[in-house]
Amino acid sequence: MSGILAGKRILVTGVLTESSIAFQAAKVAQNEGAEVILTGFGRLSLVERIAKRLPKPAPVIELDVSNQEQLDGLADKVRELQGDDARLDGIVHSIAFGPQGAFNFLEGSWEDVSTAVQVSAYSYKSLAMALLPLMPQGSSIVGLTFDAQTAWPKYDWMGVAKAALESTNRYLARDFGPKGIRCNLVAAGPIKSMAAKSIPGFEELADVWNHRAPIGWDLADPEPAGRGIVGLLSDFFPRTTGEIVHVDGGVHMMGA
What we know:
Layout: E1 9-12, H1 21-31, E2 35-40, H2 44-51, E3 60-62, H3 68-82, E4 90-93, H4 110-131, E5 140-145, H5 157-176, E6 182-188, H6 202-212, H7 223-233, E7 244-247
Parallel strand pairs: 1-2, 1-4, 2-3, 4-5, 5-6, 6-7
Helix pairs in contact: 1-7, 3-4, 4-5
């Protein structure tokens, strides 16, 4: 199959519904020639059903990124699927979570905040280290952020967790660069996904895009972000690392 990911093997985390950016990334990756493996957490049967809606059904591995035992066994799970020539040319980190308390900046407890930071930021490094033995030179890791330069309405400690993710990406790019592995993030605008439903005041947050995206933004269309991810997974950015590519309709560049 031809395409910018022809012959590549990609692992995608965070697929839960067809409205998720991760699903679109997996779909575009397959359309561009990649073999895709998904990981799922919690509602694994739902992820397995969604995996069948991709252009080509994809296998699903259970993964809780806060469970070190599962992280330690992840590479072996991939080897079981791929055989003796197992490898991963790309990883998509689309994992974030914050308890309800994390969406109240002044009242959020350390327990809530630490959970948000562990799952949303530290897991980027954890996932990369778990799969490093399978990644050859030229591989690419792409994560999803929500631009942390701004104190967004209602986002609160999740915004702090995203700032931690963006810093983690820079340090990971520094340490993985000598291994020939690129590490980048896509900063997407808000999408009406399953994850969005857990954000109190999401509509107020999303309304910023209705007024400030110079090229426009569709809250129901995750495909532009999925395409951005696939672009960074490809060989078209061979010397781009530690970067944040904004796929947000241009909101990030607008002044206060």
